[in-house]
Amino acid sequence: MLSIIFNPSFHLFMQFMKVVDETLRLVTFSLMVFREAKTDVNMGDYIIPKGWKVLTWFRSVHFDSETYPNPRQFNPSRWDNFTPKAGSFLPFGAGSRLCPGNDLAKLEIMIFLHHFLLNYQLERLNPESKVSYLPHTRPADNCLARIKKLQPRPVLNKEENWKM
Ligand code: HEM
């Protein structure tokens, strides 16, 4: 176990996870979920009566500046030594309907990023484009970009790979 933790690849993996979590937070692909109150629920000064439908708006949770200072900024470092408290990071929902594909989804994002970063260069055509927030956080120009394939890198042996 210790050899995994002190392995440089593990450190790189943890850094990668921060980029993925920050992307999930900022973009919030799933905007919201619906729930129904099964009993009267007291929430602070409010009562949600039994039978009412509740719309949970995830972006407000992910953009709460008390949990995420300067929330509109993409900042993977905010995840350094930071574990959000229950209910404040909900890219995959919560409770009994939590997305069962969450680990697979993160793995897919990481595999995509790995190959994309190693093999391609993306140059945005309008780097100053405004950001729009509905339905998702994204550049208003839909991220128009020129994508260039890079020269293939030489294949390294296992030890050389770990030094990178
Ligand atoms: C970035 C990718 C994904 C995001 C952001 C996402 C997000 C969500 C969210 C927010 C829910 C609703 C949870 C709730 O009601 O509390 C959900 C449900 C679900 N997701 Fe995902 N999901 C993703 C990828 C996947 C993948 C890859 C699979 C399957 C391979 C998957 C399968 C499901 C299923 C079956 C449900 C319904 C669960 C239920 O109602 O019990 N999702 N997802």
TrEMBL record:
Instruction: Return the Gene3D superfamilies for the record.
Output: Cytochrome P450
Q: What is its main location?
A: membrane
| Cellular localisation | Membrane
Record keywords: Cytoplasm included?
no
InterPro entries assigned: Cyt_P450, Cyt_P450_B, Cyt_P450_CS, Cyt_P450_sf
Supply the alphabetized keyword list: Heme, Iron, Membrane, Metal-binding, Monooxygenase, Oxidoreductase, Transmembrane, Transmembrane helix
Task: Offer an example of a GO molecular function term for this protein.
Answer: heme binding
Q: Answer yes or no on keyword Iron.
A: yes
Which is a GO BP term held by this UniProt record?
A: brassinosteroid biosynthetic process
GO cellular component terms, alphabetically, are:
endoplasmic reticulum; membrane
The protein's name is: Cytochrome P450
Give the organism, scientific name. Answer: Corchorus olitorius
